[in-house]
Design goal:
- About 60% of the residues lie in helices and about 10% in strands.
- Strand 3 and strand 4 (about 115-120) form a beta hairpin.
- The chain contains 26 helices and ten strands.
- The protein has three domains: about 5-35 and about 200-365 and about 375-410 and about 585-755, Up-down Bundle (Multidrug efflux transporter AcrB transmembrane fold); about 60-105 and about 150-195, Alpha-Beta Plaits, CATH 3.30.70.1320; about 430-585, no CATH class.
- It has a four-stranded antiparallel sheet, with helices on both faces. A four-stranded antiparallel sheet has the order 8-9-7-10, with helices on both faces.
- The two termini are about 15 Å apart.
- It is an alpha+beta fold.
């Protein structure tokens, strides 16, 4: 079939497939589901899912912190009236299951067969203010939970429906903010925290930042392409190819039912930047052949033949870099690796179908830069090549010293993350969360499952005493500022039976007294805060609480000490315990981060090694490919250690991605060298010619990659910022290693073994 007819057929098929992709892309939705970041397939996750089915999720709540006006305390009657009005308003909202507030907190008193709930606060009776405040400070569970110790702020906690999605969650939060404004609360007088708040903010920012990053990338790449090729088609055609690949990738993601989250939001920018490599290599080679006076058809065929091997191999190694992220147990990272890896292969497919078809259908372009002026690149690259080889000892020595220092610095990297790790320390959302850590119990949930031994219930006196011992440890040594358990129920009922006296808030002294208390517990079963602490039959209970977000390193140490205490200081024949909860699962991710990163990098390196060995059948060539690409990785690891950047979910992907991308230019260089050696017997001259021929494409693609990734530094998410910064630095160091270490290594390893390189280039489809 003639090339022009084949080109028309290819364009028709690709347009139809792109139209189908647009259909699916239109159905894409943004998602920030906190639960997606739990370790998939982990036994602790399966345990927590069953646990939450019995007791509810530990993060289905919103905290609303209200500051008293300047010069007043929270016991001011006017302020309390506003708090009570807000409490009633929130109780009436859809998807609200329960509201706990200082104005609806009551001191229950049992009289006869009934229970009388006496409010702790009486906003309408200013004369009782002194007595109310004194009682509040004497009552356990109110100060640091609902009322700040300095009496300058209060908290309203509202429990929401399980796993409430963004649209109804946004509506509920918007209604609360509107009511706050109506009641005269300025934005700096109230603070919101909780999973629902983070979910709302994150998704909105994802949508905004995705558009910003794509716009910046398109502008930046367009400018670089123009300065590189100085022709409209040299700019438009690469953009069409890569944007088409992005549509295909997002369309496939949508067709598989995957939404855009914090990780997959990087796919369009990542693919836009990475996907430019093949198109630039193809167009650069095509323009070079046209400059030699070759006819358009022959120039295109030569370009495809010579670029096919290197581009196919680089697409394979890049996609492997992304596919290795599928070793992660975190679903968003898994999806990001899978679909970005597939999209890289789709970009290669379009680069060798859509791009040649468009070049074939266009008229032979009039080159803007005459060949007589086209040696500027050759001149610069020629001088660089001579300087590198003349000072090769210095290059190797400096590289070795930098590498040693980087390895030493990289040893300082620690795995540490917090619940809002991706937000900068001055982010308004993070500042709101910090407010609750300064004035109240905190926002990090704590969960400990209590399972009495066979024949016992959580209301047995031995079980209660064991539970109280655990509570004392958690408050004294673990750092819980607020907690509740079946002990809370029993103590509260005992206090209610004793006329609501605070000093009676303690466990009973005898089994007979306990039996009387347990018989009365049924009077309190309608209280949601009691119902959530123990199953109706008493066969299982929980200790639940909140604390500051101390970070995973400290949390791991606290959990290790807690497990030791439970093992040594509690009687498992009375009650068995198990640490669980959403925070515990997030911490569990960090335990797997190092293993996932090492396994991902190892798989990436092994796969690249196998590919190089299979194609070049040479250990020397394997070393030549690996060394210039591992050196930048180690240097950036040193930068992370020096800058104190912690390893966490978002930054753990950096090394595998950077290695997979960085190895591309080496593959292109080696493949061009093999072709050059077919007609150039002298190794030095062949390396020099390859350096001049591939150098421009290597530099241009690296500049585009670095520039594209640098757009991510404008993100409000720290994780995205570091992905852009550190991958950009890796690629920047990579191009330096490519233009310095690579030619030195080739000449050193192959000065007497040229025949090992001079093998036929494997054909990729002709």
């Amino acid at each position: 079939m003639p090339l022009r007819k084949l080109s028309h057929l290819i364009l028709l098929v690709l347009v139809l497939l792109t139209g189908l992709s647009v259909y699916f892309v239109a159905q894409l939705r943004f998602n920030y589901n906190f639960n997606d970041f739990y370790p998939a397939g982990d036994p602790d996750l399966a345990y927590y899912e069953k646990y939450s089915a019995r007791f509810g999720n530990d993060n289905d709540y919103v905290l609303l912190g209200l500051e008293a006006p300047a010069g007043r305390t929270v016991f001011d009657s006017q302020f309390l009236t506003h708090v009570d009005s807000l409490t009633r308003f929130i109780q009436q909202r859809p998807h609200i299951e329960h509201v706990t507030s200082p104005t609806n907190a009551t001191n229950p008193v049992v009289e006869g067969l009934g229970v009388f709930n006496v409010p702790y606060l009486h906003p309408a009776e200013p004369a009782r203010r002194a007595a109310d405040s004194a009682l509040v400070y004497r009552t356990p569970g109110l100060v640091d939970n609902l009322i700040a110790r300095d009496a300058r702020a209060v908290t309203i906690l509202f429990q929401t429906s399980p796993n409430l999605s963004k649209p109804p969650g946004d509506s509920m939060l918007a209604a609360v903010r509107t009511e706050l404004a109506r009641q005269g609360f300025a934005e700096n007088q109230y603070h919101l925290a909780g999973k629902l708040v983070a979910q709302s903010i994150f998704v909105d920012r994802l949508q905004r930042e995705l558009m910003v990053f794509m716009s910046l990338s398109v502008v930046l790449v367009t400018v670089l392409l123009w300065f590189t090729f100085r022709t409209w088609w040299g700019v438009v055609l690469p953009l069409v190819v890569v944007l088409g690949a992005i549509l295909w990738g997002l369309g496939l993601m949508s067709a598989c039912g995957v939404s855009i989250d914090l990780m997959t939001a990087l796919l369009p920018v990542m693919l836009f930047v990475v996907g430019m490599s093949d198109t630039i290599h193809i167009i650069t080679r095509y323009v070079t052949e046209l400059g030699y006076g070759t006819a358009k058809r022959e120039a295109l065929l030569i370009t495809l033949k010579e670029s096919g091997f290197g581009s196919g191999l680089s697409a394979l190694t890049t996609s492997i870099g992304f596919f290795t992220l599928m070793t992660s147990t975190i679903r968003p990272i898994y999806n990001f690796g899978l679909f970005t890896g597939i999209a890289v292969l789709l970009t290669f497919l379009l680069s060798f179908t859509l791009l040649p078809a468009m070049l074939m259908l266009l008229k032979k372009p009039q080159l803007r830069v005459p060949r007589s002026q086209g040696h500027s690149w050759d001149g610069v690259l020629g001088r660089m090549f001579r300087t590198v080889l003349a000072r090769r000892r210095l290059v190797v020595t400096v590289s070795g010293l930098i590498l040693a220092a980087s390895i030493a610095s990289a040893m300082q990297i620690r795995i540490n993350s917090a619940l809002l790790d991706d937000l900068s320390k001055n982010d308004p959302v993070k500042l709101d969360f910090r407010f609750f850590e300064r004035h109240f119990a905190g926002v990090r949930p704590f969960e400990l499952d209590l399972q009495p031994a066979d024949g016992r219930t959580v209301y047995d006196l031995a079980v209660l005493r064991q539970t109280e011992r655990i509570e004392n440890y958690l408050q004294r040594d673990y750092g819980l500022n607020f907690l509740a358990s079946p002990v809370t129920i029993v103590k509260s009922v005992r206090k209610a039976l004793k006329g609501g006296l605070v000093e009676e808030y303690r466990l009973p002294d005898s089994e007979s007294e306990l039996r009387r208390i347990v018989n009365k517990i049924k009077l309190f079963r309608k209280k949601p805060e009691f119902r959530a602490l123990a199953l109706p039959d008493g066969r299982e209970g929980r200790i639940t609480g909140r604390m500051p977000d101390v970070g995973s390193i400290k949390a791991d140490a606290l959990n290790a000490n807690l497990r030791r205490f439970l093992r040594q200081q509690t009687d498992s024949t009375v009650v068995r315990t198990r640490l669980t909860g959403s925070a515990n699962l997030i911490d569990k991710n960090n335990e797997n981060l190092t293993l996932n990163m090492i396994s991902g990098m190892s798989i990436d390196i092994v796969m690249v090694t196998i590919i190089v060995l299979a194609l070049f059948r040479s250990l020397r060539m394997t070393a030549i490919v690996l060394i210039p690409n591992l050196v930048p990785i180690l240097i950036v690891a040193g930068v992370m250690g020096l800058a104190g950047v912690s390893m966490k979910v978002s930054t753990s992907i950096i090394f595998t991605i950077a290695f997979g991308i960085a190895v591309d230019d080496t593959i292109h260089f080696i493949s061009k060298l093999k072709l050059t050696l077919q007609h150039e017997p002298n190794l030095f001259k062949a390396v020099r010619k390859t350096y001049l021929m591939a150098g421009k494409a290597v530099i241009v693609t690296s500049l585009i990659l670095v520039g594209g990734f640098s757009t991510l530094i404008f993100s409000s998410f720290d994780g995205t910022f570091y992905v852009g910064l550190l991958i950009g630095l890796t690629l920047l160091f990579g191009v330096v290693a490519e233009l310095t270490l690579l030619p030195i290594l080739i000449i050193y390893f192959y000065k007497h073994k040229v025949k090992e390189i001079r093998q036929p280039v494997p054909a990729l489809g002709g």
